[in-house]
Amino acid sequence: MTGDWIDVGALVEIPLRGARTIKAANGEEIAIFRTAGNRLYALVNRCPHKQGHLSQGIVHGDAVACPLHNWRISLSTGEALGEDEGCVPTIPVRADAGRILISRIAMLATLAA
């Protein structure tokens, strides 16, 4: 842990256009995505539609397709795209010296809600 940021692993552990998950203290999963453009995003790992595991979806640009019903979710806002409605909580994430860091305060606040 680095102050307000939690080190959750090496950047190279997530392939481009891929994801990995981490368990939060309350049992919830956080999905961390890495886009083809090498941007990182973190979301609670459940689609707002049918609770599908977003980490198992396909990353297209800055969105992920839910593996259950193909809902597209914005990785930056957590909002469902197109005509679908719903939102999944996002958590600030960044890379530093090849490590992935997520916001401790934001993660705790998101999971407590």
From TrEMBL:
**BP GO terms, sorted:** nitrate assimilation
Q: Could you tell me which InterPro entries the record lists for this protein?
A: Rieske-like_NirD, Rieske_2Fe-2S, Rieske_2Fe-2S_sf
Alphabetized UniProt keyword annotations: 2Fe-2S, Iron, Iron-sulfur, Metal-binding, Nitrate assimilation, Oxidoreductase
Q: Name one Pfam family in it.
A: Rieske_2
All residue ranges annotated as the Rieske domain in the record: 5-102
Q: Which GO terms describe its molecular function?
A: 2 iron, 2 sulfur cluster binding; metal ion binding; nitrite reductase [NAD(P)H] activity
The record's PROSITE patterns line, in alphabetical order, gives: RIESKE
Cited PANTHER family: 3-PHENYLPROPIONATE_CINNAMIC ACID DIOXYGENASE FERREDOXIN SUBUNIT, FERREDOXIN-RELATED
Q: What is this protein called?
A: Nitrite reductase small subunit NirD
Its source organism is Rhizorhabdus wittichii
Q: Which gene encodes it?
A: nirD
